[in-house]
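$ ./design --mode recover --in tokens.txt
reading tokens...
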């Protein structure tokens, strides 16, 4: 989500205030940044590598164990910053779709022939790839004017370190989709500026989310892709609560310029892009 001008930036999960973004999920990287990680998250990658190295049958190539990126359509997700960070939220009257209302829908079009054989990599936006705030921040990467309650307000966007390299790398192995709980009027222009190489095949926004207990949930079964070939990278556990075995959790990012989580994650996803069933590798029991 975007932050309001009162604190630092928050994380993206299913909290929604004024602009429409989601909040908080945490993952530890294999090689950490100066920021401390909790033990549960820090063990995620090591456990995955142990599972991969000890189970060559799960991979076509025993030496490659990274999943690939997926594409996103046009639905907007709303992430809220942690309470200790300023937030921006592009809320609109429309609530997330009820799960029964979207159950028969396919969010993505048929797989493009050029992506044949690729798995789908679903990427969250706020606090996963970028952090946004109504409060001016430096060094800012983008300034997005957004209409809120009839008035134009600037949203200041910071790119997570390594995001450009990450998107380029994963797009070689995955059909990449950005799926955010933010509103499209904010997230679409952010993606226009972030995805300069146009490697993200689809964008999904809030209206593509399902309503589960009042929270915005990303129902991967509605994508129109085989679930054993879908990976979601998100900082909010609520976003993938229906499909935890398809998730690679990442920590919420706000402004740490020394963060290297995306750069650490890229090689992992590359290594597992050709596994037969991603859920065997990403099973939540490893957490």
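writing sequence...
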């Amino acid at each position: 989500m975007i932050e309001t001008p009162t604190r630092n930036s928050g994380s993206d999960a299913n909290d929604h205030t004024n602009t429409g973004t989601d909040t908080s999920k945490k993952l530890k990287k294999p090689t950490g940044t100066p920021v401390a990680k909790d033990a549960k998250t820090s063990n995620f990658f090591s456990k995955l590598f142990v599972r991969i190295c000890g189970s060559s049958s799960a991979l076509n190539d025993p030496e490659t164990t990274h999943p690939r990126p997926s594409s996103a359509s046009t639905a907007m997700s709303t992430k809220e910053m942690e309470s200790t960070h300023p937030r921006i939220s592009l809320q609109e009257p429309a609530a997330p779709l009820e799960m029964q209302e979207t159950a028969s829908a396919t969010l993505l079009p048929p797989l493009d022939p050029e992506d044949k054989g690729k798995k789908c990599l679903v990427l969250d936006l706020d606090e996963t790839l970028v952090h946004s705030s109504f409060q001016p921040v430096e060094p800012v990467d983008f300034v997005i004017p957004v209409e809120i309650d009839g008035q134009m307000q600037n949203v200041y966007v910071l790119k997570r370190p390594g995001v450009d390299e990450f998107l380029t790398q994963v797009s070689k192995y995955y059909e990449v989709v950005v799926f955010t709980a933010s509103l499209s009027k904010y997230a679409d222009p952010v993606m226009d500026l972030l995805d300069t190489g146009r490697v993200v095949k689809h964008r999904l926004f809030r209206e593509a989310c399902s309503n589960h207990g009042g929270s915005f949930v990303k129902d991967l079964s509605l994508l129109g892709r085989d679930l054993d070939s879908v990976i979601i990278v998100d900082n909010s556990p609520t976003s993938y609560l229906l499909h935890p075995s398809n998730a690679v959790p990442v920590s919420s990012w706000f402004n740490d310029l020394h963060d290297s989580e995306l750069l650490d994650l890229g090689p992992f996803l590359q290594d597992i892009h050709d596994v037969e069933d991603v859920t065997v590798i990403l099973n939540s029991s490893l957490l």
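exit 0
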